[in-house]
Amino acid sequence: MMVYYRLYWTLWILSCFGQYLGQDLQIPAPPNKEEGDSVVFTPDNPPPSTSIFITQWFFGTTPIITAASGVPTVNPAYEDRASFDSNTLALTLEKLRHSDSGIYELRVTTTAGGTLIGETSLQVEKLSVSLIGPEEPLIEGESSANITSEGNGNITSVQWMKNNSSLSPSNSIIFSPDFRSVSISPVQRSDSGEYQCKYTNPFNSETATYSLIINYGPDDVSIKGPDVVDLGVPVSLSCSANSVPSASFRWMFNGTNTGVTTDTFTIDKTDFTDSGDYDCTAWNNVTNRSATQRHALLVKVGGGGGGLTTGAIVGIVIGVLVAVSGICGLIVYLIKTKKIPVLNKEQKGQGSGASQSRQQPDSHYEEMTDIQKTRGEGPVPLKRSESIIYENFRQNEYEN
């Protein structure tokens, strides 16, 4: 009788639980969720609650909930986010995060000692954002730019920045009503930079960047180099311009193309024929704009390398002429004021002639004395011819 009773009990258990023993629990996979959403995992074929001893939900190897005799215990990591239905064995998760994506497992231990296992998966879309900008080149003052953001996930706020600073609307910067895109028209060179769009929700935030390049120029063309150089020395003229992209250059000399297309024009050894006007033309192949600057170069002897300028040389020449004129004027003044004796013709001759001329006044003087003596001891009036000879004598004597 006892053996019969045990056999009957075993058959009853098999009839009641045979459909679960050795079989997996079927748990449908929920659709993809976004961060902040909720999800419910419900098995399709749960065993009767009266035959369940322990129920456990796992995320990977981490326990979420353990229910013994219908009383659930929640892992502290899931507190306020996880709940359990002891009748349906359903697990509910709230405030989903991207890190909740993965495999979930349900294990049921029956009162008969059997174990039922079921698995499912969950995909929580990560908050993401990307930016799409203009594909054609943007030219300053002519083009318009539209930057649009696209993303996934539960988005609660959108923030725009430029070079890590907040981007504010203005007359040329306009945001769409949903704040998902920004329009700039017309673009200026100051609009160049890195634009950021940040998507945020209570659980996460993501940022996308886009580099905006504004093409402009060339402008502010300048040439650096000497104005005056020495003959036979090397010379370099350097040309620069503000331009995006970088400008290309062309050099002309006195209106003739030199064939030089670099930013530097070099003369290995200067010649007088190198004096003239050098024109540098900068050209931007994107904006299709150009600008030209001229530089005058003078080649002369002693003209460069720290030598005297033309003005200094002219000043020195004028100073020398004034000094010479002053010296000549002083000499004339001294002669006229008889502070410097004038040489007579005999003194301008040879040395012997000069010596003779110095002796002649003495003989003339003796002759005149003899004449006076022959006419008496007192002064004797001279004839006109004698008077003239005497005056000439006195003048020569004074000049000597």
Summarize the structure.
The chain is an alpha+beta fold. The chain is 22% helix and 38% strand.
Protein described:
This protein is of the alpha+beta class. Helices cover 22% and strands 38% of the residues. The chain contains five helices and 27 strands. The protein has a five-stranded antiparallel beta sheet with strand order 5-4-3-8-9, with no helix packed on it. A five-stranded mixed beta sheet has the order 21-27-26-23-24, with no helix packed on it. It has a four-stranded antiparallel beta sheet with strand order 11-13-17-16, with no helix packed on it. Helix 4 packs across helix 5. The longest helix has 27 residues, at 310-336. It is rod-shaped and about 155 Å long.
Strand content: 35-45%
Strand order of the largest sheet: 5-4-3-8-9
Number of helices: 5
**What level of helicity do the residues show?**
10-25%
Task: Describe the global form.
Answer: rod-shaped
Unreliable stretches (pLDDT < 50, length at least 5) are 1-22, 303-307, 342-383
What's the end-to-end separation, in Å? 186 Å
> By helix and strand content, what is the structural category?
alpha+beta
How confident is the prediction overall: mean pLDDT? 82
Number of strands: 27
The profile of the biggest β sheet is: 5 strands, antiparallel
The gyration radius over C-alpha positions equals 58 Å
Keyphrases for this structure?
disordered N terminus; 38% strand; 400 residues; alpha+beta; 5 helices; single chain; five-stranded antiparallel β-sheet; five-stranded mixed β-sheet
Any chance you could write out the topology, listing elements then pairs?
Layout: H1 2-17, E1 33-34, E2 39-41, E3 52-59, E4 62-68, E5 71-74, E6 82-85, E7 90-93, E8 102-110, E9 115-122, E10 124-125, E11 128-132, E12 138-139, E13 145-152, E14 157-162, E15 165-166, E16 173-175, E17 181-184, E18 193-200, E19 205-212, E20 214-224, E21 228-230, E22 235-244, E23 248-253, E24 256-257, E25 264-267, E26 276-284, E27 289-300, H2 310-336, H3 345-348, H4 351-374, H5 384-399
Parallel strand pairs: 1-10, 12-20, 21-27
Antiparallel strand pairs: 2-7, 3-4, 3-8, 4-5, 6-7, 8-9, 11-13, 13-17, 14-15, 14-18, 16-17, 18-19, 20-22, 22-25, 23-24, 23-26, 26-27
Helix pairs in contact: 4-5
